[in-house]
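Lab meeting notes turned into a lecture example. A postdoc, R.K., suggested we walk through two folding results consecutively so the class can see how the record format repeats. The first protein's sequence and structure tokens come next.
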Amino acid sequence: MKLNQITDNEGARKSRTRVGRGIGCTKGKTCGRGVKGQTSRSGVAINGFEGGQMPIYRRLPKRGFKNVNSSNFVVLTVERLQQAITGGRLDLAQPITGAALKAAGVVHKTLDGLRLIGTGELSAKVTIEVAGATPGAIASVEKAGGSVTVLAPAKEEASAEG
């Protein structure tokens, strides 16, 4: 077999339907668009338009809201923290902060702060500063001989001053 002999199987590639090629063809004359009217012409974009009737997105009531004051925390697990310590990416002599974790490549961004959750086990004694922590995570760090400092979120400090 040679490269110039390789072909698709019969019927593997279907040819494009050619429309508007005379009335003897299935898609001739009106090309399957029907007769007259808005949708028979090009440039029609009527998604959600119901012919003048009140559209469904306006008939139904609005639900819920988006809280603009909500905090968006980056989740950090105890297991991932242990992996970074085992890999030698974190300096245990210094307190572990969001900036240190970002510099080590453990997290990509800090957003409104870090939230430590207690998935996994920790064997190293660490001092960590986070914006939030679950009771299980705090217990896991303290069991290993470390301490967790829960900082106030930056948003609340800014609003309290202003």
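The second example is placed directly after the first for contrast:
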Amino acid sequence: MEADDLTLLFEVFENTPRQGPGSVETTRRALRLLPDSLRVERVLDLGCGTGGSTIVLAEDTGAHVTAVDIHPPFLATLRARAEERGLADRITTVAADMANATSLGAGFDLIWAEGSAYSIGFENALRRWRPLLRPAGCLVVTELVWFVAEPAERARAFFAGEYPDMRDEATRIGQARSARYDLLGSFRLPADDWHAYYAGLEAPLRDAISRRGEREIYAATRLERAIYEACGDDYGYLCLVLQAVAAST
């Protein structure tokens, strides 16, 4: 994606409830799969956007959450939301690139990455983020995958350009295990998460077009929605709840 296109897309997402498919219930469902023995005091939320998951993580775990995103306006919105919910002292925002893992600290009990690992490559993310966890810490990540062996050609052609490294569920689970994580649980995000995400895009996208005129990136966003509506049974997000394997095992 060109830099100008990314800027235009970020502008649209500044005014959306979420920056990708997900929901409060999906975040809580993943939290319920964490082991009871895991003490969650420090959380790293990577690609947090405007805080759709960050707020839930802070409220439900009682932990301190370091929320990381590359786009400062997203973080400004998150800080305002945290202030409104009385969470300002439990959420720290950091404008940084997720690929630069060493700048983010270490010893986190939990790393959260909803819909963001693809931006630096799924396997690369697993490797780069693992050293940030404390021993036996957990990683929760959602990843776009194929649900069927033979996806519709329309969907396959679209993602060949948008996400050429897209794989199936078994492949991603195998890669997580190869990166020395145990799989604690997994589930597919429900279609309702996708429908709510696209519904939240409608007004901001119309507003962007009225101000900026028709742009290729806006057309691509509408095409993405049309493909999901036609072929959504063939692909979607898989949530993986992972725990770092001790080095001695």
